[in-house]
Amino acid sequence: MRGSDVAYEKLKMMIITAQLKPGQALVEPELMEELKLGRTPIREALNHLAWENFVKIIPRQCIMVNEVSLYEVESIYQMRFALVALESELAAKNRTEEDLEQLEKGIEALKSGQDAEQRVLLDRAFHRTVSSMTKNPFLEKEMNNYQDLSIRLLFLNRINLTSIDNMDVKHHEDIYRYIKERDVERLIEVQKAHVQGFKEKFIR
Question: Are 130 and 103 in contact (CB under 8 A)?
């Protein structure tokens, strides 16, 4: 893995899990020291994160972690809601037995997970598997990005970290079932319900 990819993954996870707070200034020398990487991979990673709306680069001034407004929360869920139909159609069509095995493992991990943060990240892994099953790299990238923006909200509102409850696990089981059966209509229905349920935790 390239240095810029390593920097990107580490910085993104630090932002998602709120180790780096909204509005916090990011200082390149400090990031270089913490990540043990050079200036070029750090800059490439920050540019990537800026494109994904995780950081804001103000030329000749500073780089900071993006704030999250109510408008942005609404926009994130509008995009997830719109794209989930295409994701469902392609995942059901293109899934393999190996994909189904991976989803089964993800559900078992969610059921046994006790730590709230771990369960949120297991939910992330489950949905990234579903996105990968579309075999459409452009859609996969967009779905993963909007999901990461959503997960960040859970870590910023830590009272909601316990949001992966039994109802959500039931959604995961239904998603697995309808992908396996290639029941696109019901898959879209449960995926939209899942997204809507998460949205209602933040917009009431």
Answer: yes
Where along the chain do its domains lie?
3-65, 70-199
pTM exceeding the 0.90 threshold for the entire prediction? no
Residues 6 or more apart in contact with residue 204 via CB below 8 angstroms: none
Domain 70-199 sits in CATH 3.30.420.40 = no
Specify the 3-state DSSP secondary structure of 171. Answer: helix
pLDDT in tens, 144-182: 999 998 888 888 876 566 655 655 788 899 999 999 999
* CATH (residue range 3-65): 1.10.10.10
Estimate to the nearest angstrom the gap between the alpha carbon of 73 and the chain centroid. Answer: 14
CA 167 to chain centre: 19
